Each structure stands twice: as structure tokens, then as C-alpha cells.
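Q: For a teaching session next week I want to show students how multiple molecules come together into a single three-dimensional assembly. I've collected the sequence lines for a complex. Could you give me the predicted C-alpha cells for the whole thing so I can convert them for display?
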Amino acid sequence: MIELKHISKSYPNKKTTFHALDDVNLTIEAGEIVGILGYSGAGKSTLVRIINGLIEPTGGIVSIDGVALDMHKQKAIDRMRHTIGMIFQHFNLIHSMTVYENIKLPLDIAKYPGNKDERILELLSLVGLSDKKEMYPKSLSGGERQRVGIARALANHPKVLLCDEATSALDQKTATDILDLLKQIHEKTGVTIIFITHQIEVVKALCDRVVVMDQGRIVENTPIKHLFIHPTSLVAKSLLQTFKYETTESMVYELVYNHKNSDDTILSDCIKQYNIDVNIKYAKTLALKSETIGFLYVQFFGKQTSEAIAYLKAHNVEVNLYAQ
Amino acid sequence: MLSSHDWNQFLKALYETLFLTFGTGAFVLVIGLILGFLIYILANDTIIKPSLYRTLAYRVLSTINDIARSIPFIILLIMMIPLTRALVGTMLGAKGALPALIVSASPFFARVVNNALKSVSENTLEALKSMGASKWTLIKIVFKEALSPLVSGFTLTLVTLVGFMSAAAVIGAGGLAFLAYENGKFGNNYTLMYLAIFTILLLVFIIQITGDYLSKKLNHQ
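A: Of course. Below is the structure for the complete assembly, covering every listed component.
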């Protein structure tokens, strides 16, 4: 478990002080996949680097499994880093080392107690690069380089995997493959994953929970489903813009179906029972990591509209007035 | 064409040139690497935490290095005459050129080393730190990553050294350039002069081609 308490980080300039992080409080449970979402400059990268001590906070306490980090004990910090893997936007591999040597490096650094060769081969097969072990990074594609990055980060069986915009430099298809690989690794090893991104599609596909950041503060901390149904922060709303149904019409209602009731014929029953007409304007589904949410945008016609809405609500369909 | 006396002179000069190039080269390699690494470490937050002392040490070392580097070699050679006499006993021959060549080429190579090390990305350093790498490991890997530009930088330094030696020839430092200078100036043996010049050119080409080949082979960027 990772706990951040009242974390702040400021960079004093000549005239003003820049607050990269401002009183950030966050708890991340073991085994979670948490997305940290925000525009660039929101403080996401600083936050994740404070977790593994790459950046020293100006104030506040970071504790991992109940032990507070002491930035003055370099040995302890190095040991802690063996249990936290990190992958990067630009992969940050060692160019002068082969794939095999790149994965061996963290094992050497942490003085891995087991059979290193066996472990490296195991990691190579996990990320699907067994046939490329003697190649240098420059002859690999972006996706393959990130796979090496992942293998390297997982080498010492870390408890936590920090991902800093790990898919942002990759094309859509490759990014999806990398996210699938991370999900698969999470299922196998139960490693806690903290994924920084500015892409909402990434958190949608991967995360259980999202932390939205803006100007060095956490503005939203919510299960992934809630973010898509009820975003509260301006940043989240703005990031969700691409998923939004745009309409100029009035009296449009948004019906939100959760996975559980998507098989029932609720709307059809409702129409029959209250003798109303429904004009369906737009419909979409959002596939999240563990469930699918359905959105239906409709106009109601008929005398018993309000009773019909109450019926829908009673059957666990969320009804929001979308356009007045 | 060339008498056996000429050939003896040529072989002696060739030996002196090779001795000077690679003898000085070895000193310059060691001194330049140490200086270049020191300047790199003093300017980088990764190895030593920023402090006033560090900045001060960096400024002093870097300034001295740059001053030494910017003195024209021929001036330095003359400036160093008393020191050279005290150190090796003579101004003449290969031995006499050694100190000035080392003092002149080391800061040059130090700057080349520094630039090669700086070409290693901060991202690479960050990745290493995130793995919990020790400072020693960091330095080793920075060196490994910079090996290709280091080799091409050392090649450049060796070629520059050959040039410096020609300047040293004017004050009697020995070697092929001196042989060419003597025989050309007094116009007595143009064949020997051209042979000496051609051999210098050949030496430069061999150094350059070998250096380029090694550097390319080590380049994985």
C-alpha cells in the first residue's frame, strides 16, 4: 500500500514560486490499477516520481507498506526502488546493450538471488520477445522497445509498476497491445499499477480507479465508472468531451444502463405500461475494464412521462435530463 | 634517389612520430578522460547533489580547462620551454615535445569527453536511478553509452596531435614533420621531404579510418 500525505513540491523562481504539487493526499491499495489523468503540467509526472524518490517532495510524507521514505538514506531508497518498476514514454533503454543485457541490468543492480538467465528467459517469453534477445534497441519497433521496458521493470518481481505515459509515443494498435499485456501481467502477478496518462482511452481500457489532476492538485478521485457517468471536475468533463453526444434539440434524456440490467427489456416494458412514445436519438456503449455501460439518448412523448421516468429509475436505469 | 643515410633518417623520424603520437595519445587519453568525467560529474545533479561548492569546483575546473585549450599550441610550446627543460632536460627531439603536446591536447580531449558524456540522455540516467543503480553503476553505464562518440573524439584528438607535432617541428622537436621541414627549407632533398609528408598523411588516414570504423561498430544509437 502506498500512502501520500500532504505532499507538496514547489520550485522557487526569482519572482514567483511554482507549485508543481499542492497538498496531495492519495492512498493506493496493493493490487489496484490506478490511472492518474490530467493535461501536461498538471503535476502527474512529479507525483509519480515522488513515489519512487526520484523527486524529493518539499513537504509531506510518502510511505510504502507503512514505512515512511527517508530521502537521506540513499541505500534504503535504492533497495525500495528494486521493488518498484518503472516504464517510460520514450522507453529509456540502454542503447549500447542488447535486449538480454537490458533486462539483466536491474537483476545485476539488485543482486538478484536466483538464476538470472532463467529469469531473463522467463521475462522475454512473458513479453513475447524470446526471439529478439540478442538484438539492440535500435533495431526494435516502438512497441517492442516498450515490451523490453516492461520486462526490465518487472525483473525483480516488483510490488508496484509505475507507468509514465507508457503508451503515448505509440500508435493506437500498438498502444492497445501494450495495455493488454499490462492487464495480462496484472492478472498473473497482481502487481499494483499506477498509470499516468493524458489519454482518457487508456484509463478506460485499463484502470479500476482514476485520479484526475489539475494544477498540482487532485480534483477527482473516483471509480472509473463514475468518471464516465458523473464527471465532476472541469478537467474530467473536458477530457470526456470526445465521448459526448452533441445535440441542439431540447428535452433529451440520458439513460445510463449498467452491465447488470443491460439484458432486461426495461424500456420496452415501460413504453407498454405507461403508453408513451420514445424517440431514440443516439445510443452508445462504453467498454470499461470490467464492465460495459450503455448510454441511450431519448425524447419522451406522452402524458405519463414522469411516471415512466420513475419506473426506469426504479429499475436501476439512471435518468438524467441531458438537454433542456 | 634516397641514400641509406636518408632511409636511416626517415626511419628514425618515423619512429619518433609514432612514439610521440601514441605516447602522447596514451597520456592524453588518461588525463582527458579523468578531466572530462570530473567536469561532467560536477555539472550533473545525478551523481553529486547541487551545492555551492560543486558549482564553484565546476567553474574553476571548466575555466582552467578552457583557457589551456584556447592557447595556440605554438605559443604554449614557447611558454613551456623552461618547464620542459626542467622536466626532461632538453627542448630537442621527441622527448622535448612531449610535455607541451600533453598539456595542449589533454584539455582539448577533456572537452571532447565532456561533450560525449553529455550526449547520454537524462532519460537514460532517470531509468537507471529508478532501478536503484549505485553511482558507480551510473558512471559505468554512461561511459558505455558514450563509447562511440568517445572513440571518434579520441580519433580527432590523435589527428590534431599529428598537426601539433608539425608545429613543434619548427623548434626542433623531431619526427617526420621536422624531417620534411629541414629537407624542404634547405632545399637539399625534396624526395625525402615528400616521403616524410606522404607518410604523415598516411598516418592521419590510418588513424581516421580505424577510428571511424571502431566508432561505427560501437554505435547503437
